[in-house]
Structure formats: structure tokens, C-alpha cells
Amino acid sequence: MRERRASAVGLVLAAACSVQGGAAVAKTLFPQLGPPGVVFLRLLFGSAALWAIARPQLRGRARADLRLVAALGVVLVSMNITFYEALDRAPLGVVVTVEFLGPLAVAVLGSRKTVDLVWVGLAATGVALLADGGGTAVKPLGIVLAAVAGFFWALYILLSVRVGRAFTGATGLAPAMALGALLMAPWGIISAGHHLRDPQLVGAAVGVGLLSSALPWSLELEALRRLPSHVFSVVLSLEPGVAAASGVLFLHEHLRTRAWFAIGLVVCASAGAARRRRSTVPLDV
Prior knowledge:
- By secondary structure, the protein is mostly helical.
- The chain has one domain.
- It is built from eleven helices and no strands.
- The longest helix has about 55 residues, at about 1-55.
């Protein structure tokens, strides 16, 4: 049992590394494709991979189920574009840490326990320390966009619970991502322009779609089969730290001590709040 749990923790950490590695690769594509172009290609190839895995059947589904999928698609594209636009203006670790306010808000939503005020206070302190980038040069709009992405992440979690009740596996997520790609197509194609004919750039975008969507979703789903959901959530709370490390390793985004301290506060707050959480869906899409 202990070995099974340890391997599951490794799967969650691998999923986090995959997501943040994908985000790092995505950021290197911004000069050519622009954030909208990267979002479009990520959703396009990510949805294609998930569709091949899940093979969803939408024919005969109730209209209420299809409306849930449509709502999830709109939230997905909104979450992704605000996240990537934030990433274009601030370091990866800072953006993910601010964005993590979304899952944290869901974790403490409706709670009447005093201890949850501690987690909220820790997170608020951490984000306040990051308000100016944690001593690192950032554009203020980047912090605002990261917070907006966190809002859409919270909506995604809440919607995913409902979609998960109506659809098995990724049979609801795959069409939602496909709809997101369709909605993003005009803006993404205009942003990327002639670079869409560059096979190297498109190949890198395929990698972003796999690293950021299909691979972590599969790893997280397998981990959830082996771990209690609240333990899964605690481990996943390490993701802001993983993002900061990925920024250093792949993007040379070196953060100051104050920023690392702020990230640590948000990680502690997320882990503390997540210990009570008993129902979890894969969070990274």
C-alpha cells in the first residue's frame, strides 16, 4: 500500500512537471505565434489527443449535458488565454502562484471553519508580496490577468464536477476543448499568421498540447485511482513551486527571495485547505 501511494504521488508530481514544462515551452513560442496562436494550437492538438483517448459519443445526449460541455469550453478558452497573456507579462512561477487563488477559493468556499481563515490569510499575504512581481520586474497587467485566470480556473473546477457526473472519463472534456479551439481559431490564426506554415513551430505546439493537456490528465486520473482525493490535492498544491522551478530551469526567470517566500506561503495555504477536500477532479487543462 505504501509503495502504491508513493508511486501515485510521483504521478501527480510528474503531471505538475508536465504542465509547467508545457507552459515554459509555450512561452518560448510567443514571439512567433503570440499567446492567442499558442492557445489555439494547444487546445486544437490537446483536444485531438484527448478525443483519440476517450472517443466521446455526443449523439443522443441530453441538451442539458451538451450545454454543460459548451459552458466548459467557453471557460477553458477564457482560462487559457488569460493565463498565457499573463505569462507574456510575468514570470511563470509568479503567474501560477497568483492563478492558484482560484483552486484555493474553491477549497474554502462555504467553509465555516476558523482554520480556513488562516489559509486565506496566508494566501493573501503571499499574493500581496507578489503584487509588484515579488521584487522581479513584471507588468502589473500580468498580475491582474493571472488573477482573472484563477477566477476561470475556479469556474472550471466547479463545472468539471458537474460534467464529470454526466460524462465518463474525458468524454466531456474532449469536446469542450474542441469547442474552445473552434472559438479561439479566428484570433489564434490571425495572431500566428504565416508562422502556422512553420513545421517546427507547429510541432512545438503539438508538444505543448500533449504536455499541458493529454499527458497530465492521464497521469492525474491514474493517481486519483491510487490516492485519496484530499491527499492528491495536497500534493498538487506544490504546483506553484514546480512552476517557479520550471521558470528558472527552462526560461532563466530567476526570482528574488521575497518571491520564493510568497510562493511558499501560497503553497502552504493551498495544501492546508486541500487537506479537507474529499472530491477532486484533475485540475490541469
